[in-house]
Write a structure and sequence with these properties.
heterotrimer; A alpha+beta (317); B alpha/beta (292); C alpha/beta (533); A: 317 residues; alpha+beta; Ubiquitin-like (UB roll); Fumarate Reductase Iron-sulfur Protein, Chain B, domain 2; 3 domains; five-stranded mixed sheet; two-stranded antiparallel sheet; 12 helices; B: 292 residues; alpha/beta; Glutathione S-transferase Yfyf (Class Pi), Chain A, domain 2; Rossmann fold; 2 domains; four-stranded parallel sheet; 10% strand; globular
């Protein structure tokens, strides 16, 4: 069959503007987009840049967008798309070095490096074979089935606004150590993950989980780590104040005292932080939409709710 | 049509314009609301699951007792409930929560509570055609950008568990059409408003506020409509701060979904508490007042 | 300097660093993208109560069909358990049984269940753990670097020249010891199960430096490759989980599961030869267990082949998979050249004889990878200082520059590769014979002449994959020629080497390794006896 491709092109270097090149190529009926790219590079345009390794969809190297949808070139079949021109371009949020060759260092490898991505074993081989519940290992295996395809980072709503965010892929990798009973660096890991640009920068929008082709559910993994931080005592001061104020409010009255939350999050002695809130607060008060802090009525059943929270906290300790 | 109504915290707190407008719209449509009083905040994704699952299970158990499906008016409440309810479908987990937390109060959750946001209620239970027939003041010429709030779109296993529910991802656009307004579609409609990260990374949060309101403005929108009061706090409440951070003027009014629908049902801007917003809704009000 | 970022290379680098050496690793793809991910089913270790290094050795010797070096087997089997336990300690989440202890699969001709496994992604997970520990050791990584030549001074390897794809610059790396861990070469067969870059670069470097390649004719074909366009390899784990290989009538091929790989391939070839399409039947496993125990297999069959293993039969055919032969190396990775080591699939120690025992490739990578790293580190410590040969880098730059030309040509590297792959599959495939091998040699020769006339048209330096593909093709052509000569030299059938004109195993003449050395630019065959214990 014949197929025509419109492929994203970009020369290496900061200043270069991206463009597109069009190629028509003759392919076998069961050809993949990778087959097409290899043939185009071989016969038509040796300068076409693209990545690839395993050829069978398990190494994550060849992630692109085909007709706007995320795909691996090595498993994306051409035949169903061949009726029209097929668009191929890099995935979103992905810095590009050249054409379809992405900068995986900036996008992913460097970010993983920041999270202490190795086990600190709490035993040695001399201990022999340990007895561990396979359910625990299954959880680790799930996180390790990740093949670093980058799609969760592509879907992330924080990265376009703050590229320094560590991102769901690196955080998923980190979660695999946090819940491994053979690791002894839990506290240290939580401290690293709770630093700015870490787990608290996630907006839990679930885009990562929706984008993951392997049901690893990165968003849920990040939420689990946040819950773990809550259990251990949150080490990020600002976030800790916010979370403790929230929990205290619900315990006290059954619902959220937003005014008090806003103040306590900044810190009642943090003059600079509190001053920052003034303009918005002033406008809100003027329009009658400022919830007066502390003047917050208790809901019926508040004491029952408080009892549940106390019990839950005690259990997790 | 009767629901156990769960208004959440913000619709009575930071967005007090939402509660009355939602109640009025429901009444107009003939949707009966039995408000749940003795129930807790959902936790909003801030409280960890080991705390929020038990308190939400309690809320679900109470709705079960009332024999009614639940209705929310906040995407965040809807999301947290939906995710918790999915977990509580596991019989072992539910039994554990019942045993350890609800039994004390003589409560038990059987896993049968269904929870829907008002947007889903009007589009699914009430019906788009019936809704259209109730529109007495089509908002002709008003250009509106939709903004869902993440939890009304994701995660898929909660929001769109089967193909039949895929339409949920287009309800706001459909609503804009039903009320006779014009769609100013934006790529950010399903993205994050920035609210959850306001504490940890204010710059990131305000950046998102600016991005989405800016995009809508660029598409010529007169306003944005959102079913989530937390998104509203971010997009409306934080808009001035976002303008300052990004160094650009936006000035885009943000409407709550019930306010927006309410105007088309014939309520006045005052009845919909439009004066409560941080970003002035005057431009929208004028346009609406000029319509027949 | 370790060349190659797969399991063996990573393990060697870690061992060398822990032995006190200053180490760097260079890889043409990032370690997490290497062919190691292809190893799915499991990793052998004699850890079971019913197992022992002796029993393990017995199975290896048996699969090796009389060609294994027993002392090598002994060294290996005595270290395998510790090597795999180390992996677990460093974080590999092996599947466990109800008692919380390791679960094991019984693969191929292993006499007992001794393969520890991680779902059906063992290689992928082991690779991650190795890379994690590599990062923990803070070893500098040069990813997207392609080694173009060894630097040799007075019969000693003193480093490499390599092309940095990101910047396009050719650079020299001086090293007291170089460890080649570049993986296999089966891309010279088409179809094959392996990654794009499995092109035998390390073997070619050693070969061109005059070092012998051993037992090249022993190539493992994987019995369970999807017969469709992509030749997706399906893990043998499926047989351990209850899958069956059936002929057209749905009849399972008898005694299939417990055989060696080469016997399985023969059986399929025979059934197919009788005109019946052969399929893999995984429906018996059931969709629940497919999802739980073979998740990657199920996923890949869906995405690559469009098949649902819970419902559909999967057409299969044997496809070129792994080399058994490679750079002659000792159990500490030493090659005949000072300062040059080899481990993993690019090396041949005599462990596997004429056929690798199923489940051994990952164990081999970590046992011999660690030993090679340690030995290289010890050598580097004691070796006299050396300097990178003056002018060598310039020479290499000029050589590569001369390859580039904008002159138009109808011929391409891809076409030459396609023809090479087809002729190897045809004439040096699962079954060989003299005339075919002879013809193949001539055809390869013709391809080499075409290759010599070919030029690289992409003048850009940055990420010039056309140049890399060109160099890889050169390696494959050399290795193909050497392989064909080795196959012609062994006039018997043994292990993975089947000759229709010499169908029987001949222990009078056959118990010796085939050695191919480059003499005046051409492969020359010789033998090396198998040394009894």
């Amino acid at each position: 069959m014949q197929a025509t491709f419109s492929i994203y092109r970009k020369q290496p270097g900061q200043g270069s503007k991206p463009g597109r090149s069009t190629y028509t190529v003759e392919l076998a009926d069961d050809a993949t987009v990778m087959d097409a790219l290899l043939k185009i590079r071989d016969e038509q345009d040796p300068t076409l840049g693209f990545r690839g390794s395993c050829l069978h969809g398990y190494c994550g190297d060849c992630t692109v967008r085909v007709n706007g949808k995320s795909a691996f070139t090595c498993t994306a079949k051409v035949a169903p798309l061949a009726g029209k021109e097929i668009g191929v371009e890099p995935i979103r949020n992905m810095p590009v070095v050249k054409d379809l060759i992405s900068d995986w260092d900036a996008f992913l490898w460097d970010k993983i490096d920041m999270t202490k991505p190795w086990l600190e074993p709490n035993g040695s081989a001399a201990d022999g074979e340990l007895q561990i519940d396979d359910k625990v290992m299954a959880r680790v295996r799930q996180a390790m089935s990740c093949h670093y395809c980058g799609l969760c980072d592509e879907g992330c709503t924080v990265l376009p606004v703050d590229f320094k965010f560590v991102g769901p892929a690196a955080l998923t990798k980190a979660s695999r150590f946090l819940f491994d009973p053979r690791d002894q660096a839990t506290t240290e890991r939580l401290h690293i993950l709770e630093r700015p640009k870490g787990i608290w920068d996630c907006v839990h929008c679930f885009e990562a989980s929706e984008h993951c082709p392997r049901e690893i559910a990165p968003t849920e993994r990040i939420m689990e780590m946040r819950d773990e931080a809550f259990k251990h005592g949150i080490s990020n001061d600002q976030v800790a104040r916010h979370h403790h104020s929230f929990a205290a409010s619900v315990k006290r009255s059954g619902w959220l005292d937003e005014g008090r939350l806003a103040l306590e999050s900044e810190g009642l002695t943090n003059v600079k932080g509190l001053m920052k809130l003034l303009p918005t607060a002033a406008k809100a008060i003027a329009r009658g939409k400022a919830p007066i802090p502390y003047l917050h009525h208790k809901r019926p059943g508040a004491d029952k709710i408080a009892r549940i929270i106390d019990k839950a906290e005690a259990k997790e300790k | 049509m009767k629901y156990a109504f769960y208004p959440g915290c913000v619709s009575r707190g930071g967005c007090p314009e939402l509660y009355p407008s939602a109640v009025r719209v429901a009444a107009k449509l003939g949707i009966e609301l039995d408000e749940m009083k003795d129930v807790a905040c959902t936790g909003a994704g801030v409280l960890p699951q080991y705390i929020s699952d038990p308190i939400n299970a309690r809320t679900f158990a109470k709705a079960e007792r009332m024999g009614l499906p639940m209705m929310t008016i906040c995407s965040t409440c809807q999301g947290v409930f939906g995710q918790a309810n999915l977990r509580l479908q596991d019989p072992e987990y539910r039994a554990k929560i019942n045993r350890e937390y609800l039994a004390d109060e003589g409560l038990e959750y059987h896993g049968t509570t269904d929870i829907k946001h008002l947007l889903w209620v009007v589009m699914e239970d009430y019906g788009a055609d019936k809704l259209k027939s109730m529109v007495s003041k089509p908002l002709t010429g008003l250009k509106v950008s939709p903004f869902y709030g993440c939890f009304l779109r994701r995660p898929p296993e909660v929001v769109t568990p089967t193909k039949e529910y895929n339409a949920r991802k287009t309800y706001l656009e459909k609503l804009i059409d039903i009320v006779g307004a014009e769609l100013a579609d934006i790529s950010g409609k399903g993205k994050c408003c920035g609210f959850p990260v306001l504490t940890a990374n204010e710059e990131s949060s305000l950046g998102m506020t600016a991005k989405h309101t800016g995009e809508a403005k660029g598409k010529g929108a007169d306003c944005m409509v959102t079913p989530c009061p937390l998104c509203h706090l971010s997009l409306d409440g934080n808009q001035p701060r976002a303008e300052q951070q990004e160094g650009k003027e936006i000035g885009l009014p943000i409407l709550h979904m019930p306010q927006f629908l309410g105007l088309a049902l014939g309520f006045s801007p005052a009845e919909m508490s439009l004066k409560r917003h941080i970003v002035s809704t005057m431009a929208v009000e004028s346009k609406v007042n000029m319509l027949a | 300097m370790v060349v190659g970022g797969g399991a063996a290379g990573l393990r060697a680098a870690i061992a060398a660093k822990q032995a006190g050496a200053k180490v760097a690793l260079l890889s043409k793809v990032h370690p997490l993208r290497t062919n190691t991910g292809l190893a799915q089913g499991g990793i052998n270790a004699p850890l079971g109560a019913d197992d022992s290094p002796e029993a393990y050795a017995g199975d290896i010797l048996s699969a090796g069909d009389g060609l294994c070096d027993p002392s090598v087997v002994q060294t290996f089997t005595l270290q395998a358990a510790d090597a795999v336990m180390w992996l677990e300690r460093m974080g590999v989440p092996f599947n466990r049984g109800g008692d919380g202890r390791f679960d094991r699969r019984k693969f191929g001709s292993n006499s007992r269940a001794r393969s520890l496994y991680v779902d059906d992604r063992t290689g992928h997970v082991v690779m991650q753990v190795l890379y994690e520990q590599f990062q923990r050791e803070r070893i500098p990584l040069f990813a997207d670097w392609y080694v173009t030549a060894l630097a040799i001074d007075s019969a000693r390897c003193v480093g490499v020249t390599a092309l940095g794809l990101r910047t396009g610059a050719l650079d020299s790396f001086g090293a007291r010891a170089v460890v080649l861990a570049t993986g296999g070469f089966t891309r010279l067969y088409l179809p094959s199960t392996v990654s794009l870059g499995t092109t035998g670069d390390g073997q070619n470097l050693a070969y061109q430096a005059g070092l012998p390649l051993m037992d090249l004719e022993m190539v493992q074909f994987h019995p369970l490759a999807y017969a469709g366009g992509n030749s997706l390899m399906i893990s043998e784990a499926v047989l351990a989980e209850g899958g069956q290989v059936v002929t057209a009538g749905g009849q399972p091929i008898p005694n299939f599961a417990g055989s060696t790989r080469d016997k399985m391939c023969m059986a399929i070839q025979q059934a197919a030869g009788e005109g019946a399409p052969v399929s893999l039947d995984l429906t018996l496993i059931g969709s629940k267990n497919l999802k739980a125990r073979l998740p990657q297999t199920a996923e890949l069959l869906r995405t690559v082949a469009g098949l649902d293993p819970a419902k559909d039969l999967i057409p299969i055919r044997p496809v070129a998979h792994r080399p058994v032969g490679g750079i002659e190396a000792t159990t500490t990775g030493q090659t005949p050249m000072h300062g040059l080591y080899a481990c993993g699939e690019c090396a041949c120690t005599g462990l596997n004889g004429a056929g690798r025992l199923a489940g051994n490739v990952l164990t081999e990578a970590v046992v011999f990878g660690a030993r090679a790293g340690e030995a290289a580190a010890a050598y580097a410590k004691s070796a006299p200082a050396a300097s990178f040969p003056a002018g060598r880098l310039e020479e290499e730059k000029k050589r590569l520059e001369a390859l580039v030309s904008s002159e138009k040509s109808d011929d391409t590297a891809g076409r030459i590769h396609a023809e090479l792959g087809a002729l190897m599959d045809r004439s040096a495939g699962a079954i060989r014979e003299a005339a075919g091998l002879q013809a193949a040699r001539g055809q390869i020769h013709a391809l080499k002449e075409r290759y010599a006339r070919l030029r690289v048209r992409n003048e850009s330096a940055i990420y010039n994959y056309e140049l890399v593909a060109y160099l890889e093709l050169g390696a494959m052509l050399n290795l193909a020629e050497a392989l064909v000569v080795a196959a012609a030299a062994r006039k018997e059938s043994r292990g993975g080497h089947r000759r229709s004109d010499h169908p029987v195993r001949d222990d009078r003449t056959g118990i010796s390794h085939t050695m191919i050395t480059m003499v005046q630019g051409a492969p020359q065959a010789d033998t090396r006896p198998v040394v009894a214990l």
